[in-house]
Design brief:
553 residues, mainly beta, six-stranded antiparallel β-sheet, 6 helices, 8% helix, 38% strand, disordered N terminus, iron, Beta,beta-carotene 9',10'-oxygenase-like, Carotenoid_Oase
Length: 553
Amino acid sequence: MIIVFCQAITSGNTHYTKISNKKRPSASGLEFIGPLVCSVEETPDPISTVIKGEIPSWITGSFLRNGPGRFEFGESKFNHWFDGMALMHRFHIKDGQATYSSCFLRSDSYVQNAEKNRIVVSEFGTLATPDPCKNIFARFFSRFQIPKATDNAGVSFVKYKGDFYVSTEINFMRRIDPVSLETKEKVDWSEYIAINAATAHPHYDRDGATYNLGNSYGRNGFFYHILRVPPGNGKNDVADLSGAEILCSIPASDPRKPSYYHSFVMSENYIVFIEQPIKLDPLKFMLYRVAGKSFHKVMSWNPELETIFHVADRHTGQLIKTKYYSSAMFTLHQINAYEDNGYLIMDMCCGDDGTVIGDFTMENLQASGEELDKFFNSLCTNLPRRYVLPLDIMEDEPNDHNLINLPYTTATAVKTVTGVFLSHEDLYNDDLLQYGGLEFPQINYTYYNARPYRYFYACGFGHVFGDSLLKMDLEGKKLKVWRHAGLFPSEPVFVPAPDAKDEDDGVVMSVVITPRESSFLLVLDAKTFTELGRAEVPVDIPYGTHGLFNEMS
């Protein structure tokens, strides 16, 4: 690691920035992954799987997954992986056996595309093609119309009031039957609360309430909103988000260019919104529409800007006045956060190049040979970091010295003229780099979310898609690894054992995709990180995004 000490001339005070040049080794001869991003047929009726090894008999429930599964309609094809039509998956597990089923989300976007047999609703990286039946003038002027908003909710499964929904980063969700995977009614957040979009990564408290992060924009500017949906019993005949409320509104530091965000931080008493220097340009959005270009290029990475951590009391919604900030970084997924002796500890997967989001085009993912190697080697290495925020800062505290006094972290927080400057601790040893860094982190969420914890699980990225499963022990930053050539595991999900005594008593589940043979549901012993069993599926499954385990179905 190279440590660079620099003076922040523009703010009139000195702080210290740790710049890491750590990156995974360059790769060559990567395996072709085109089959992982090909359209598949749905399997609406549950089919049997072939069990190899043993799936523990105490596991009863459904592993639900979401992600893109159809990438073309007729002759028109989606340009970006995120644009593929949402395909929902269900592995139902009982008595050591498993069945598999899948269904395309019958979103308005899917139905309209299917009816016209072409892409008629624009997505993140794909602009809808003009109607060929219109004359040239009508097609030209259609570019000046506000595009239809997609409801292709292909990122994750989420829960509100006990009901299941599929969600993405738009204003619409769809309620889902978690057993049949039937698409139910469309839900528009704006009918319940004054927001324009919400994340696909809410947090849940132990009373059953759900928290999320949304935004709005208008004459008064651009705002990020922390919102809360009260608990429910999951026995609703229709979608019900009644009682949803905005706890806190945070004005954008630059209302002309708000920040992109994918998730947020929650501890027992605080919620943190990270305003990162991935910026959205609304003007570009409109200009690109007129020019006939897709929307993923309206985002820009601005490494000259700070990353700002906005902290709000989870119970009162009151914003802490202290400005916490760091040098430029980006984060998609949080690991965990908890409070300890007047400090807020936040662990997350971070990178130093926020241009990565727009790069997952179908062209790049279907490349081979040197082109695939070049694409992979251009991607940022995401690594786990810890930031520590001192919550109780005395007004007479002198500037330019470390405010953190915890024995187990090397993270620092230095008071400056403008706020508190944060430097992170790396939550890994160098052996992680040979597995490509990590992403898609998960913990024992039921019992350890927002509490001190020891373990987390993730995908290692020695390829464009995850090619290993990792268990990180934060005591010593020690790794356990499951990795086999040609196998691409999905986000790991921890399921606690019914008689668990330790944090890692349970199993880790992952859907493993392979272009070589049958894909399968993998079940690992979470403690030893060794394979217990797998359920092989006789149909094709594309690489997906996020999921959860539902003990109720």
